[in-house]
Amino acid sequence: MWIFTPKYIKQGQLYVKAAEKKLAYNRDVWSAEACAQMEGHVASLKKALASKSKEGVAEGEKAIEEFCKVHCPVGENAWISENVEVVLVAIIVALGIRTFVVQPFTIPTSSMSPTLKGITGTETKESPPNYATQVLQFATHGRTLHEVVAKDDETIEAIEDFQRPFPRNFFTYTRIKTDKNEYFVNENVKTVAEDFHLMRGARYAKGEPIVRGYTDTGDHVFVNKFIYHFRKPSRGEVIVFLTQNLEFLGNPGPPPRKPSQFYIKRLAGIPGDELAIVSPQLFVNGRPGEERGFQRVAEGTRTNPAGNGYMGYGHDRERTTPVYLTDPSKKFTVPEKSYFPLGDNSYHSQDGRYFGPVPQDNMCGSGFLVYWPFMRDKGTHFGLIR
């Protein structure tokens, strides 16, 4: 067994492997004489290993070392290529893991709230705390604090997305243009405009805050992309899927398939399930959904949210009309090789009620862990997704 093999034998075997690798890499570079010389050194070392001659192994190793000093000189900047090689291998491994095993996603919207939090903004009356506190809040809560104060008496003329020339598409800003100045907030325009109640034509006096408060990042989650190679998606679990070839039938908004996006929802129905919504309950095959995720959502109603923040399942969404499960009498049977997703925040979720069942080929994986932020205002948030 390897564990009982003498140390000098183990070392000699490693020398043989390294020498054979060097020979394979350099056979088209070295002369025929040099290749034959290396082959001879390897053969001699193998013979010494077979006879377990400690002196012979030492001589064979020394011969290979002397050969490499002549034919494999170490360049002045060899450390650079070695480190680059290590980094490239690490990148390739990481990309492989991301593509086939586990991929991180960020939740942008509130469609799965409060199970998964999207990006939210909160106004405050107080100015941001000191820099050390801001860094701590960002690390634990994913919180970014903002304060934009009017430099003059001015009126907002435009609120728009803005990206720095470099690095482009890396940081997202909102540019607030007034008739006298322009300001930048490090967050997307939808969150800034809606959560901080900005609008064109709004007038601000000099020294008055235009934006004051903070934004909390959406949950960062890991998605298991490997698991569906071994089992089929399970009813009640949180899933990620592509919107490619889905026909968005609600109004307004462009089809989510252009371009294809990743959506994260809860799997309400598997092939053959008959679904119906009798608010606040989701019914599966004629009975209230038994999975804990469905029960949590159904614990509250829109007019009387549950203590945990859920509002129940509903038929309508603000400003839009769904196509599927539109009233208690309308049932839907999930076709074969398809799955029906619903958001936990039923009244603010673009889900299967608007684009129907999701083909099996669109399924990407199962969301299983919130890895950041660690905290929310109501306590610990890091952990397994239920």
Task: Reconstruct the topology from this structure.
Layout: H1 7-26, H2 32-51, H3 54-71, H4 78-100, E1 102-106, E2 120-123, H5 131-141, E3 143-149, E4 154-162, E5 173-178, E6 182-185, H6 189-195, E7 203-204, E8 209-216, E9 220-224, E10 238-242, E11 262-269, E12 274-278, E13 281-284, E14 287-288, H7 292-298, E15 332-333, E16 338-342, H8 352-355, E17 358-359, E18 363-372, E19 375-376, E20 379-380, E21 383-384
Antiparallel strand pairs: 1-9, 2-8, 3-8, 4-5, 4-7, 5-6, 9-18, 10-11, 10-18, 11-16, 12-13, 12-15, 13-14, 16-17, 18-21, 19-20
How much strand? 25-35%
Provide the number of structural domains. Answer: 3
CATH architecture of the largest domain: Ribbon
**Oligomeric state of shown chains:** single chain
Which series of helices and strands comes N to C? HHHHEEHEEEEHEEEEEEEEHEEHEEEEE
Low-confidence stretches: 251-255
CATH H level, superfamily name of the largest domain: Umud Fragment, subunit A
Helix content: 25-40%
Give the termini separation. Answer: 46 Å
Explain what the structure shows.
This protein folds into 3 domains: 2-71; 120-216, no CATH class; 220-384, Umud Fragment, subunit A (Ribbon), CATH 2.10.109. Helix content is 28%, strand content 26%. It contains 8 helices and 21 strands. The chain has helices spanning 7-26, 32-51, 54-71, 78-100, 131-141, 189-195, 292-298, 352-355, and strands at 102-106, 120-123, 143-149, 154-162, 173-178, 182-185, 203-204, 209-216, 220-224, 238-242, 262-269, 274-278, 281-284, 287-288, 332-333, 338-342, 358-359, 363-372, 375-376, 379-380, 383-384. The strands form 5 sheets. Strands 1, 9, 10, 11, 16, 17, 18 and 21 form an 8-stranded antiparallel β-sheet that branches. Helix 2 (32-51) runs antiparallel to helix 3 (54-71). The longest helix is centred in the first third of the chain and has 23 residues, at 78-100. The two termini are 46 Å apart. Residues 251-255 have low confidence and may be disordered.
